[in-house]
Amino acid sequence: MIQLTETEKRLIRIIQDDMPVAEQPYKAIAEQIGISEAEVIAKIKEFREKGYIRRFGATLRHREAGISANGMGIWIVPKDDAERIGNIMASFKEVTHCYERPTFSDWPYNFYTMIHGKTRDDCEAIAKKISEATGIKEYSLLYSTKEFKKTSMKYFEDGEEG
To answer: Which pLDDT does position 1 carry in this prediction?
Structure first.
């Protein structure tokens, strides 16, 4: 059984929610729980190394940010060039997610990029730029029609001892 200190539980309660919108978000977190910014960062790294948290990332609520179009770029990328191509795709500021996945007999696409823009035309233009930058010509864009859920897992709630 994992034994966590009260400070560690407080940190988990904070980082399982939205990060503070601040120039130094880790410093803002540190001030909330009474430890240093360096301690917050070190503790998050420790949690990852020990496997207490598997990933630590940010979620862009694109619709709230004025980005109303998002297209999932699906790409056929040569396996032997996947690392290089993936790094190019991920370097575009409009790409918030870039994944390599297995292919299937009826689904040849092995790369996925979530492209955000104000309009579908914006997404199409970015996909074209990605295609030109990578040399990948076999791709398509799939568009979301409805957003169902965007929340993080909750491990400790306020007031919960756990």
So the answer is: 76
